[in-house]
Amino acid sequence: MAEINFLIHPSFKLHGVSYNKRSLIEHCSKSLFKDNEVFVFILDWLSDDLNIKIQSSGSTGQKKVFLAQKNAMIQSAINTGKFFKLKEGDRTLLCLPISFIAGKMVVARALVLGLDLFVQKPDDSPIKDSSKSFEFVAMTPYQLEKSIPYINKINCLIVGGSPTRPALQKQLFNNSLGVFETYGMSETLSHVAIKSLSKGENGFTAIPGVSFKSRQGYLEINAPYLSNLPIITKDKIELVSKTKFIWIGRGDFIINSGGIKILPEEVERTLSFYYLESFAICGVPDKVLGEKSVLVFEGKIPSDAVNAFQNLKKFERPKNIYCLKKFERINGKINRLQLKKNLLKLINERN
Fold first, then answer.
1. Do residues 242 and 260 share a domain?
2. In three state form, how does the secondary structure of 233-302 look?
3. What is the pTM of this model?
4. Are residues 112 and 171 in the same domain?
């Protein structure tokens, strides 16, 4: 294993104040800040331990806890810095939960690249009341939608965690700011691929040090700084080249309806042009088909919900429409597993 040699850049700042390793440890160790998760992470980062404990969000499966090598996180930060041409002293904002990899990597990038890190409590519109401008910010799609009137405060913005809606993509197309959607997961230590929403790109492009293959239609990631072995995902893709792919949907959410396979995300992309309300496509048991596709709205069902079905292929059209009071989310992403549990409970109560 290569020796770790770059835990904190000499130009690193926190809220405009310069720190070296010793002064930052002292600052984060003060009793006033002991319960602050950001400072707890920084202390873990600056410790002699070669690894950091990472927890997956659990939105696509069981929550997992694993150890990530600091070396790999450092290289991930460097790769992102190269891709976006980040410079030491650039302002960056943490407005994501530090409990998951996306938030941890915001802090790691600042420490490794010598950025000026500002910390904001995660909320719907984190830059609304900020008097400062930022060179680089990461948000969830929900935060971005709520921040559209204020994104002129940001030079480069990345959005990830779940796919952006076509309506949002349309708003951002030809935007003078750099807005990018990212692809990644906990196991890849945040993003490994980027697509420009400002330019209307359809495919994701690899960051430096990463290449892709298609294994029976599923994405295979080759990133030597992460693992000597390829990372096999459950994401259905169309491979364009070894450094570019088009994301189709999650393979583990495929609905097998009478032998026909339906990808919820594909159907959702079409329907999202017609609904303002939050919704999701879900598969539920069916006596005839084995499994059927249903449409679930959050809060209320629009009066003209069925009208949008004419834009779907016949086999894609949901067989029923349901409504749940609230969707559970993890880091802004709909928890599909919990949504299905809640929906099945509702259906059973009605029967």
1. no
2. EEEEEEEEECCEEEEEEEHHHCEEECCEEECHHHHHHHHCCCCCCCEEEEEEEECCCEEEEEEEEECCCC
3. 0.83
4. yes
